[in-house]
Amino acid sequence: MPLSSSWLWLAAALYLLFEIWRGWRRGVVRHGVSVFALLTAGGIGWIFAWMTGAISDRVIPLPVPVGRAVFGLAAGLAFYLAAVVLSSLLFKKTSQQSAGIVRLFYGFGGAFFGLIFGLLVLWGGVTIFRTLGAVAEGKQELAAQAGLGPMAGDSSLVAVKDSLEQGSAGGLVEKVDILPASFYGSLTKLVQVTGSPEAAARLFTYPPLQELLAQPKIAAIFTDPAVSKAVAEGNYFALLSSPQLAAAASDAGVQNSFSGFDWQKALDYALEEKPPSPAPNP
Fold it and tell me: What is the pTM of this model?
């Protein structure tokens, strides 16, 4: 059962009031720095992940995108915390200002930045919870196919996602979310396909996908012994440094083929239930 959308509105309103109050107390400069640091942390994290990619690939025993994301997230979080701590040490909060117009300016300015900070957090939270809910929906479908019950955490995430997408909140969420609605449906189906060997095998029998993979520069990737060895050993750094992969990724024709490929139809084909084979005649 989805949560009542009125509770979500109430929780969002209370959170915004809290951030406005916190911004008033911290002052315009301190909370202005917090907003700037929050907006900048993502870029700092991306640059750091790109610059230290070769190190993270070897240090973190996870697939390449995950390891680099961990490094980038750590760098972004460290930058944000450092900016907040330094602003608290260098600048005064509202109560430390002398009474009068300066204190009012510090308070109202901080409250304004508190509102902006709260809206940014809610904006990002909508995308995060919808993404986690889409993954949980796919896991629930896999559990149901296996005759298992849903996990409590997955059920809660799906309930939050449904609440965000339904009722009075649904229209606003669709307008402010940075990702299109189709992304979440495709993500749910992708989880189902990757979690089912039968669906994954059926995906590769999809005729348009076979045509796509049959392109010479893409086929060269799968026939390269070094790529096969890297996949078998889990050496994702060697896989990404493959000359064949680089040649395919930089080819304009391959790029156009992938950008024009309808992955939604491919996932639907993979999840399509095949009719049972007729019983043989006795």
Answer: 0.66
